Amino acid sequence: MKADSMTPNTPTEWATNTRPQTSALVLATKEVLQQGLRLLESCGEKYALAAPAPFDASVGRHFRHVLEHFHCLLQGVNNGEVNYDARKRDARIETEASFAAGATNEVIRQIELWTEVTLAQRCSTVSSLAYHSDSPSFISSNLGRELAYCIGHAIHHFAIIRLLCGHIGVKIPADFGYAPSTLKYQSSLAAD
Fold it and tell me: Shortest CA distance to 66 belongs to which of 127, 149, 122, 130?
């Protein structure tokens, strides 16, 4: 590592770097999940309300799906395998906003402990990707890449939740459900 640099460049440097650092990925995770917590506060009793067709889903169902991807990632830290097919589909996360908030805070708490060493840890992912196959796909990855996937996946579902909220009459912040790159682009247009 260069003497003037505080950011390690290799996994070996990450392992020998003793300065505590909070990764941008960890901060992004916290930001997106805190956005989810604000959503839970806004929904109230409408959290589990299923919107009619074409949605046929509730805010809670989408939020559960998002949170359970983070749960799968956390499960994979110890065994090196992130199995996205092994979601528990916890009905309480889907139907009880207060329970979902507690589960979200626990995910944030656990991921805040992650270091650059954790993010560099190799893993394989298990996920059913092909409609024509009964076997899941196994892909080599690392925990940082999978954390980035979970963040993007959350933003994607938050965009769907944004549509659901409009349909069931839940007020949400103007920037909810937009990717950071979209917000930056919109901001640059407004500045012109």
Answer: 149
Cα angle value 60/64/68 (rounded, 5°): 175
Residue 124, classed as helix, strand or coil, is strand
**Bridge-partner residues for 82, per DSSP?**
125
Q: What is the pLDDT of residues 91-135, one digit of tens each?
A: 999 999 999 999 999 999 999 999 999 999 999 999 999 999 999
Q: Report whether pLDDT(15) > 80.
A: no
**What are the tokens at 159?**
């965009």
Q: Say which residue the tokens 């901001």 belong to.
A: 187
Cα 123 from Cα 53, distance rounded (Å): 39
Backbone dihedral angles phi then psi of residue 127, each to the nearest 5 degrees: -160, 135
CA angle (82, 101, 69) in 5-degree steps: 15
